[in-house]
């Protein structure tokens, strides 16, 4: 966090509006941060994805470093848990590691008169990790289905692949409120039930999953790339073969599309009324997006390319008509 603070201090949010530089794509997709209005006070309530949590927390803390008195509370109830409170008007912003569900969550927002704007903020490389001593280095998509799918009966790694070690499988996966769970179930396993196997330990706290995998022989789990990167001294990331050979998770492979199908978009959803009626919400959201490239890179995520960043800026500019 301190290193990230130095990055944004160097770029300057009070330097007369010089452009910030994009963090990972090699292009210049930074926005003119402009003058931070340190006279704006108030509170901003955020909840949702544990994957996006470090990025939103970084944005809040960096705005404080730059002199803002705005108080931002950031929860990590999971993407689904975040939408539950967002769609009833209890929060101003919802962190999400998947799009809002059109069948279940959108109707709740509509019932409660919550109009919102989706803002794409970064890309993540969903990372499958195992105990560092486990001799499993690459998994095909078919093997991911055998490992995590709801119909899986695999209890030994050799049930997944006869060439794998004779070792019991012990799984640690996100809970059902997590967008990370939803993404694995719906976009990778692609079972019509959109669920995963129920005999693995679950938690909405990614740190619990990291601890479980790192301390258990035969342990396996999955979470956002940031959590792997922070704990790579005690975990081993598994390469994924999406049909074109084994590819390891990284910023580069997620952005160029080769880390398929586990590269995924990350979002924040902003309550339009909160943005237009509450100066603190508008100030925080504007600051977040203005410094997005540096916040994403510093928090360990893959910054947007120039085209996607421009679309996010346009969406933000369109709030309130």
From TrEMBL:
Source organism, top-level taxon: Bacteria
Family listed: Belongs to the PstS family.
Domain named PBP: residues: 38-290
Keyword hit for Transcription regulation: no
Signal sequence interval, chain numbering: none
Function statement: Involved in the system for phosphate transport across the cytoplasmic membrane.
Keyword set includes Kinase: no
Protein name per Swiss-Prot or TrEMBL: Phosphate-binding protein
């Amino acid at each position: 966090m301190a290193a990230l603070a130095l990055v944004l201090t160097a770029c300057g949010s009070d330097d007369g509006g010089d452009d910030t530089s994009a963090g990972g794509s090699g292009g210049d997709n930074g926005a003119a941060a402009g003058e931070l209005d340190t006279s704006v006070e108030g509170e901003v309530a955020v909840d949702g994805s544990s994957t996006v949590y470090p990025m939103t927390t970084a944005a809040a803390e960096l705005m404080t470093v730059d002199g803002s008195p705005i108080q931002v509370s950031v929860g990590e109830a999971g993407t689904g848990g975040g939408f539950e409170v967002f769609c009833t008007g209890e929060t101003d912003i919802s962190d999400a590691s998947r799009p809002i569900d059109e069948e279940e969550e959108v109707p709740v927002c509509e019932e409660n008169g919550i109009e919102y704007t989706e803002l794409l903020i970064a890309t993540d490389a969903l990372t499958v990790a195992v105990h560092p001593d486990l001799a499993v280095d690459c998994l095909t998509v078919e093997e991911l289905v055998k490992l995590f799918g709801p119909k899986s009966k695999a209890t030994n790694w050799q049930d997944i692949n006869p060439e794998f070690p004779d070792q019991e499988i012990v799984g640690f996966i996100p809970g059902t409120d997590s967008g990370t769970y939803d993404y694995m179930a719906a976009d990778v396993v692609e079972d019509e039930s959109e669920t995963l196997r129920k005999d693995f330990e679950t938690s909405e706290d990614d740190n619990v999953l990291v601890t479980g995998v790192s301390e258990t022989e035969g342990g396996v789990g999955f979470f956002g790339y940031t959590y792997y990167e922070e704990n790579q001294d005690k975990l081993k990331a598994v390469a994924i073969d999406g049909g074109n050979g084994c590819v390891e998770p990284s910023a580069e492979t997620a952005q160029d599309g080769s880390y398929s199908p586990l590269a995924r978009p990350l979002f924040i959803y902003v309550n339009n009324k909160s943005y237009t009626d509450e100066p603190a919400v508008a100030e925080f959201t504007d600051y977040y997006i203005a410094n997005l490239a540096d916040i994403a890179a510093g928090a360990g995520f893959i910054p947007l390319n120039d085209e996607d960043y421009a679309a996010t800026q346009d969406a933000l500019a369109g709030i309130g008509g």
